[in-house]
């Protein structure tokens, strides 16, 4: 304990797990002192992004061997999960280069990487999965763990600290950078020229993409009052840090500039009066900004406000220095009109999103826009490492097996959100939205009649590039996987292609097995599977498209109450209802701390119950030994996944998340959309309790509250996933607020 007490001095904030329990060391000393922990039996969790940043070469910011291992492993995982076609070859080349320094077991194989990545994708890291680092946080062993954490969006990673530094362990290899490969030098066992120039560019681009996504590059803005000094400031910055990118933007309209300022300062909750004052000053100067990004290998992150706010001391000093220098050169200077730069990784991501909005508002050439799509800067961001061309190629491969591919150059497509839609088909969709229902509508694709929605359609129809795809599909949806829609066939169908990072062939096999079982029960109506090819490359299956319209919870309430509730209950009973403990449904480790943190993030409504009473009741339920009923569940049972067919029946689609789960958890979506179903399902659940006599079964209301609590407990995972797919943080916070709202509503009904 004396060792730990000596750590409570200054600077870093890290989370330690001691004998299975979490403790927060608010002030941990500089990196050099982390080595003391190697002599105590502790495992340490470090932020994934910070650990990656530590692998950068401090002197010239080159890609070091440690970073190279991580990026190549990341690319290999991408190919193993269908995201690119280059990673495994790079992985094998690097293993050859390391042959003289490492045993085969230490180097690893594609099989071992595949097996480990599949395990992480399903269950995360186990207690035995630890990265070994030295006291400078350089990785000694476990690059594949960091690569998996990056690929699957895991925010913190477990490490152990070794007392032997990296340089002492591997000698000259510690100084190897990717530049040495270009120069053809052999640094302690690395074979010269083992990557081509094209492969080096791919590695560099992948590393930059990861750094931008995690906010590890510090973005900055130089304002108009110092426009004549733009080059001098960038030149001065480049002497201390690597300048990753530099772009200038000129605003033609003052209102566009003002909107950009408001978005920029929304992060800091700055008062409108301050924004207006700054705007009034800046418009007296040229409406031009210079946007740049810096790699600061040691940002000197510190905490303030009782540990709630993290900031870079390097950035803080930088801003003060440049404000001091240029305040004398700017006429009628006011504070903060020279330099704006991110304070921490989250702030960095916010600034980047604002600048992306500025970029999208500017006119760009067809070539630039096409490259924007290909480099995943577009709305298609969920398949890492793949381009629009790759998507077309994958769909074409499936079409060859279906006998639909004709080998032509295909059709012209536009992009709307995550959809790639044939441009001619877009016109028909727009007409059908104006003149009513039409058989040409694509399931789950809705037309937004707002001004913003209309602009998106106009952009997809008339703004180049016109993506040329050699496919027969009317539309392609890109999310966790690819779905190609074929509306004009005799039997309209969709092909679901497994390529995303969140699904595996085993997941698709499970979905197919569940759907076959549900069809045999003749309880609920679901689209039938037409063809299944899970051993092909890529794996896929096809299912019929049910013609009809999406269920409306108000318009179709009577149909839901009269038919669907009974059909769902027949499904649960037919599949089999079993009773299990609460621990089978909810991960209760650190539950109270997680709920408290989540409650501090949201703005607690005055209409909600007392926060202490609410958390107390949540913990009572979580600690209860009562049982809850489990059965097969859809996993996303909302009206958006229901279609009223031409026969008047409700069909339930999208069974990809189907698995055994608490019955009330599965029903929560439909109960939220159609509140009157609650009493019907409460009667069913209460009936189960009566049938089991003295069995201790959690009440229906408590089960419903448990569901809301389970969503809150996953808020950190949800936030990481939202960042992975570039979903706005505001959308995530709104969902968390709604979860607390639902939980409070249930609590108040008790």
Structural descriptors:
750 residues; Alpha-Beta Plaits; eight-stranded antiparallel beta sheet; 28 helices; 26 strands; disordered N terminus
Description of the molecule:
This protein is of the alpha+beta class and about 750 residues long. The chain folds into 4 domains: about 1-195, no CATH class; about 215-360, Alpha-Beta Plaits (2-Layer Sandwich); about 390-545, no CATH class; about 550-750, Alpha-Beta Complex (Aminoglycoside 3'-phosphotransferase, Chain: A, domain 2). The protein has 28 helices and 26 strands. Helix 3 (about 65-80) runs antiparallel to helix 4 (about 85-95), helix 3 (about 65-80) packs across helix 6 (about 110-125) and helix 21 runs parallel beside helix 25. Residues about 1-35, about 35-40, about 170-195, about 365-385 and about 435-440 have low confidence and may be disordered.
Count of strand segments = 26
What is the CATH architecture assignment of the largest domain?
A: Alpha-Beta Complex
> Which descriptor suits the 3D outline?
globular
**Kindly, what is the distance between the CA atoms of the first and last residues, rounded to a whole number of angstroms?**
46 Å
**Main pleated-sheet profile:** 8 strands, antiparallel
Indicate the radius of gyration in whole angstroms: 28 Å
On the 0-100 scale, what is the average pLDDT? Answer: 76
Provide a brief overview of the structure.
With 750 residues, this protein is of the alpha+beta class. It contains 28 helices and 26 strands.
Q: Which helices and strands occur, and which strands form pairs?
A:
Elements: H1 2-7, E1 12-18, E2 21-28, E3 43-47, H2 48-53, H3 65-80, H4 87-97, H5 104-107, H6 110-123, E4 131-133, E5 139-141, H7 143-151, E6 156-161, H8 166-170, H9 178-183, H10 197-214, E7 217-222, H11 230-238, E8 242-250, H12 254-265, H13 272-282, E9 288-295, E10 301-304, E11 309-312, H14 313-326, E12 339-341, H15 345-360, H16 366-374, H17 388-402, E13 411-416, E14 419-422, H18 423-434, H19 451-462, E15 467-469, E16 475-478, E17 482-486, E18 493-497, H20 505-521, E19 529-533, E20 540-544, E21 548-550, H21 557-575, E22 578-581, H22 591-601, H23 611-622, E23 627-633, E24 642-645, E25 650-652, E26 659-662, H24 663-673, H25 677-691, H26 700-713, H27 715-724, H28 729-749
Parallel strand pairs: 4-6
Antiparallel strand pairs: 1-2, 1-3, 3-6, 4-5, 7-9, 7-12, 8-9, 10-11, 13-14, 13-15, 14-16, 16-17, 17-18, 18-20, 19-20, 21-24, 22-23, 23-26, 24-25
Helix pairs in contact: 3-4, 3-6, 3-7, 12-13, 21-25, 22-23, 24-25, 26-28
